[in-house]
Structures are given as C-alpha cells and as structure tokens.
Specification:
single chain; alpha+beta; 4-stranded antiparallel beta sheet; two-stranded antiparallel sheet; 31 helices; about 10% strand
C-alpha cells in the first residue's frame, strides 16, 4: 500500500525495487558514496516522472501507461511479452540478477621505476602485468542508472505528446500535427512521437513534422479507413522507435518506411474501405456509421478555414456527445416527413431516400450543436437563421458552402460527395477510380432518367395516416391513461405500416401498456419504446444478463458517440438481473398534433440505436461467428484462404498466419485459426470441428480444386462429409448446407 492507502502502482513497485537493489551490491562494485548517488538518481528520476504525469491537474496521465510505453522502446519489444511488461521489468531488476555473478578478468599493469640513463632503449623494457579475476553481478549498477536516466529524459516529452501547446520549444506546425494525432487516435505511435521530441536540436522541426504527417496518414488509411486490427505493425514500429532512441536510425528513415508501407498497400486499403462502407449502408447508417466521420469532416473544415483564414469549429465542442444534441446533420433528414423534403425528392422511393440521406455528401458538420428534433426542418429553414437554430449562412465554412445552394437536391448530394472524396484523395494521397467513387457514395441512381412526377400539394396540417376512428379507439374497462396509451400505440403502428416499417418495427399488436417491444434478432437484448407519465417518451435497450450489460458498459463511449446522444445507464434496480439503457425526451406524448413528430423521433432513434449496436457490439456478432460465421465477409474468406495456403505449404507458421489474417482483414483471431485448421483438414481429408458458413465452404472447395486438382478436391469433400457427421452427433441438428454441398460434388 502507498501513503494514499491504495495498492501500489507498477511505477511505485518498480521504484521501490530499484532502491532496494542499490543496497545489495557489494562495495567492490558500488561503494557507499556511489550507492547514495544511484539512489539519488532514482529518486530524481521518479520526481520528474511524477511531476510530468501530474503536470496538467485537470487531465493527469496514467503511471502505468507511461511505464509500459517506455518499456516497449527501451527494451526489445515483442507482442508476446506485451501484457507482461511489469513482470519483465521486475525480473530484469531483481535481487537474483544482483546475486548471480560471473568472473571478469582484468589486467593490472605494475609500474616500474624510471631510469634517467640516456642510453636506455624502449625496446629493452619488459612489460610487467598481473592478471586479476573479480566477480561482478549479472545486473550492473550502470544498467539501473541508464534505465532511470532514460525514464527521466522521456517523461517531459511524453507529456508534450498530450499537451504540445505547453512546450516553448516546439514549432507551431509541430504542435498542430501532434494535435491532429491526438484527435485521430495516436495509438501505439505515442512512444515514437515522444522519442522524436526528445531528440531536440539533433533534428530539424521539419523532419519531425514529416514523420508526424506520415504517422497520421498511416493511422487514417490503415485503421480509420481500412479497419485493420489496432495492433497491425505495432511490434515493427515499437522497434523502430527503439532504433531512433538508440540512434540506430533516423526520423526520415522511419517516415520513408511508413510512406512506402502505405503506398504498397493502397489497393487493399481502398478495397477494404469500400467493403466496410457497403456494410454500413446495409445496416442503414451509411457514412453516418463511419466512426471516424467526425475526424474526416473536421479535416475538411480545417482545409476550408485555412483558405478563409478563420476557424469556426472547435474540436472539443464538435466531438462532444450531448443528450438530444447533434453536431453532424443529415441535410436531407433520415426520415423526411415535411412537405419540402417529400416534394423535393418525390422521384425517389423510400429506400433510395434513405441511401441519399446516408451518403457522404449529405452529412454536414455544424459550428454549434442543435436539438436533434430540428433535423427535419426544410432546407430554406436550415439555411437561414431562426429562433430555434443558427442558419447555415452563419455557421461553419462547410455550412456556408452548402448554403450557396438554392435548393438541396439529389444532384447536390452527389456533387458534394464527389468533392469530399476528391479532398480525401488529395489529403491522404489516394487515387479512386470513377467506379470506386460511385461504389462509396452508393447513389449512382441519381443520374438515371426518371418519369416526371407531379409536385405534391403543400399540406396545411400535419397529416397522419387515416385510421378507423370509430368509437375513437375506445375500449371498455380501461382507465383514461390506459386509453391514451392504446390510442398512441395504435396510431404509431398504423403510421409505421404506412411508411413500410410495419414488419421490422411495428410487428406487435398495440396494447394499453406503457411499453412497446421490438425484437432485433439478438438473444442478449432487444429495443423497446416507453411512455412515462404523460410527458416523457423513451427508447431503450433491455439487456437480459449482467455480463452482457457489463460488456456494453465498457463500450459506452463508442456507443454514445455513434448513436449521437448520451444514454442513461444506471436507472435499473441494483438487485435486478436485467438492466435497461435509456434515452428519454420531454414531449406532450398524447397530443395528437405532435404524434407525427413523436413517431418520427422513435423511428429515427430506433434506426440509429440498432445500427450502432450492430456496428459496435462486435462480441455479440462474434458469438454468432463461432456458430455459423455470419459476420465473415467475402473479403475475409478470400484472404483467409490465401494465407491458409501459405501456412499449409510451409511459407508461414500457423500463429503467424492467424495473426496476419486478424491484422489485415480484422477477422477475429479465433475464427482466423479455425479457417486455417479447416483448410488443413480439407487438404488431408480429415474431420474438422469448427463450422464454416456456406459461402466459405464453397469458396474453399472451388479454390482447392483450381489450385490443387481433383484428387485434393475429393479429400476436401470427404473432410466436409466427416464434419457434417461430427456436427450431427453433437445433438444440435444437422448442417443441411454442408450435406447439400457434399451431395452436389459427389454427383
């Protein structure tokens, strides 16, 4: 325990260990004076480290994170040791290594008396030496001193990687790019950046900026666009940082290496980005579901602000998640109900409008957050100031650019999307083909010729779908409140059916209760709507088990960021097994004039919440992976097959192959190993025990036939037959698609 009554941190443990070790060296290696000096050096180093970590009192830095980061670059880093860094350090700096000694031979030269004989010749001198053997510790005092000196030196620059504006030595451009790295998520590159700063005048500021630019490009393309595993190349660049620390390589060399790595990888990066974007559109979110959309739009806004010489968006405000507030707006609303939008986009069906709304060109960064309910305003109302919101013409540079448009049309969405992709190309050194741009935007149907559709007459009142109003939905035996609830849910179900949302949202029969449940195909939780009293409307996640809730709780920041609003996490009773996660708004729930607004809020929030859970809660998806690989993409399968071939042919080890699949296409590591094992089994005609989905099985069989011939295919079919027999014996049913594939090939 420390003096604060808390468990010692790893940093405190290590300091105590090093101080203790200074007492163990014998006097021949370290006399009392040197022991005192070494202890002083240790204390001075820790004093500096603690000062730098706590220098910003509002945002103190983590002890153990700094210690681990320094370890990764001071010692030879391997991923296998990555989680055991403190064990490594305590084993390295241990009493055993002080007491374990080995002999070292030294030469003691014996001094001879000098002669003043003028005829004395140097060649006549006989060298007189005497050898002496001494015992020295396996761990030398100089190693401890060098280690603590390095910790002390790096601490200040570690601080500046978080707070560059506190430095008087960094140039404005260096500070700017470090801020960009923090915004995008600097990840495992922070130690490299800290070491580059520690070089001070050994390198020019321009050389550091070049490195920062290449790091930012690498992060954006590999992690933010392609979605590579967060540890991709981490070992390699940790060791590059170590080489820089020990002056074995230059910053320019590392920058060139980063550039070359990316340039050689551009085609897979673009392919992966397109595939991931396809999945976002399949989920209904489109580009709004891209976790790094904020960074991209902020960079575009920064580009415009540089041209206009004034900044209009603050990153802290822009990235902040507030309840019922948004900072990225769908110009064309996700669920357009007002006459302006229905008339303006009358040539397009519901599905096309949903895709247009989610396309890149329709998403706009706002200088000030607005209430999410204002997203349905017409384009003229969004452009010009009103009492409820600041208009586009007074907003960010991006808003002003959009406000130039007279009307917001499908063509405007397409053109702005192409403009943003062109910026992406120039900013990060990409080169999309025309076809790739169309694939990314998903709205090439805008240019199709369509029959003219007459304008929709402008209504004078909010129109709800016509319903059977006989008896005003009155039902005997209900209280007044129960009758109001029944009317609300009946009208909601009718409205959902009128806009083609009856099957996914409004499949249940309305009742007089205060909730309405919606199944989303997940056994661990479902979404529900709820009315509280008469003035609160809710959407929520009903979570069945505490362990599922804990998993979601760990993802809270990511869920709220993508969903776009803060959620209430702790309203359930502590003793309750099931937990609820809520989003509530105040409204006049039972006012028929507000029905349309309330219904659209429920539907739009449902779409966002469902898509967010599908995108963020990957553990839920992975539980499906283990059963039938439903989240495995065609891109993953193709890459897994190619790597499995290399492993089978001895070009890669199994572990190396598994890690490569996981890093490059973001497949779960366990699934990657299963694919390699299945390939081995197929090539040897042996039973495999982990199930591949139908697409993967067919792909592997076809590719094996093309690469290895008919005999190999027969073995692979035999392996599939044995797998189907094995699965049936488990009592979980039959794998009909595997049996069907076997039958097809056998015939």
């Amino acid at each position: 325990m420390n003096n604060r009554g808390k468990k010692l941190s790893n940093l405190e443990l290590l300091k105590n260990r090093l101080i203790y070790l200074t007492t163990l060296f014998d006097d021949e290696q370290l006399d009392n004076k040197d022991k005192g000096q070494l202890r002083k050096n240790i204390n001075d180093a820790w004093k500096e480290v603690y000062y730098q970590l706590g220098r910003n009192q509002n945002h103190p830095l983590a002890d153990d994170e700094f210690l681990r980061a320094h370890w990764t670059v001071y010692f030879q880093y391997t991923r296998r040791k990555g989680d055991d860094y403190i064990k490594f350090l305590l084993n390295k700096f241990s009493s055993k290594n002080v007491f374990d000694k080995h002999p070292v031979t030294i030469d003691n030269e014996i001094a001879e008396p000098q002669t003043e004989d003028e005829d004395f010749d140097d060649e006549d001198v006989v060298e007189n030496t005497e050898e002496e053997t001494i015992l020295v510790s396996k761990l030398a005092p100089s190693e401890i001193n060098a280690y603590v000196s390095s910790l002390k030196e790096i601490a200040e620059y570690w601080y500046y990687t978080y707070f560059p504006h506190d430095s008087d030595e960094l140039s404005a451009e260096e500070k700017q790019w470090i801020n960009k790295l923090n915004r995008i998520g600097i990840g495992y590159f922070r130690p490299l950046v800290a070491i580059s700063l520690s070089l001070k005048n050994e390198v020019e500021a321009e050389e550091r900026v070049l490195l920062f630019k290449e790091i930012e490009r690498f992060i954006f393309l590999c992690f933010r666009m392609a979605g590579y595993n967060a540890s991709y190349k981490s070992s390699y660049y940790y060791n590059k940082a170590r080489d820089v620390l020990h002056r074995k390589t230059s910053l320019k060399s590392v920058a060139d290496d980063l550039m070359e790595t990316i340039d050689n990888d551009l085609n897979p990066i673009i392919t992966s980005f397109i595939a991931r974007t396809d999945r976002r559109f399949d989920s209904g979110l489109g580009f709004y579901g891209w976790r790094d959309l904020r960074y991209f739009l902020y960079e575009y806004e920064s580009h415009l602000s540089t041209k206009n010489n004034i900044q209009k968006i603050d990153w802290q405000m822009f990235s902040k998640v507030e309840k019922d507030k948004i900072t990225i707006e769908h110009i064309l609303p996700q669920t357009p109900t007002k006459w302006y939008w229905r008339n303006q986009f009358r040539h397009f069906n519901e599905e096309e409008i949903k895709i247009l709304s989610a396309s890149l060109g329709n998403l706009l960064p706002l200088a000030q957050s607005i209430n999410s309910s204002l997203q349905n305003d017409s384009f003229p109302d969004k452009k010009n100031p009103s009492s409820k919101r600041r208009g586009y013409i007074n907003g960010s540079h991006s808003e002003i650019e959009v406000a130039i448009e007279e009307d917001w049309t499908p063509e405007a969405i397409l053109n702005r999307g192409l403009k943003l992709l062109e910026f992406m190309e120039n900013r990060w050194g990409l080169d999309f083909t025309v076809e790739q741009k169309n694939e990314l935007l998903h709205i090439d149907f805008v240019n199709e010729e369509r029959d003219e559709v007459p304008e929709i007459p402008e209504p004078t009142t909010n129109d709800l779908p016509k319903t059977d109003k006989s008896s005003s939905f009155l039902k005997e035996g209900l209280t007044a409140l129960q009758q109001q609830r029944l009317n609300f849910w009946r009208s909601f179900v009718d409205y959902c059916k009128s806009i083609d949302r009856g099957k996914d949202i409004a499949s249940q029969k309305p009742a007089h209760v205060n909730w309405y449940d919606v199944a989303i195909g997940n056994s661990e939780y479902y979404i529900f709507f709820q009315i509280m009293k008469q003035n609160i409307l809710r959407i929520g996640i009903y979570v069945h088990q505490p362990e599922t809730f804990k998993r979601l709780e760990l993802l809270r920041n990511e869920i709220e960021s993508m969903y776009g609003s803060e959620l209430e996490w702790y309203t359930s009773r502590k003793t309750s097994t099931a937990k609820r996660i809520l989003h509530s708004i105040e409204t006049d729930v039972f006012n028929p004039e507000l029905y349309l607004e309330n219904f659209n809020w429920l539907i739009s929030q449902y779409d966002k919440l469902k898509s967010t859970l599908e995108e963020i809660d990957t553990a839920s998806i992975l539980s499906v992976d283990n059963a039938n690989n439903s989240s495995i993409t065609s891109e993953m399968v193709a890459y897994a097959y190619d790597v499995s071939k290399k492993v089978f042919e001895g070009k890669l080890g199994r572990t190396e192959g598994r890690d490569e699949i996981a890093d490059r296409v973001n497949m779960n590591s366990g699934s990657a190993g299963d694919y390699i094992s299945a390939f081995y089994a197929m090539m040897n005609g042996e039973r495999y025990t982990r199930t591949l989905n139908e697409y993967s099985t067919r792909y592997f069989l076809k590719a094996i036939y093309e690469d290895y011939g008919e005999l190999a295919l027969k073995k692979a079919i035999d392996a599939c037959r044995k797998h189907a027999t094995y699965y049936a014996a488990l009592g979980r049913g039959r794998l009909a698609y595997v049996e069907k594939i076997v039958e097809e090939y056998s015939n």
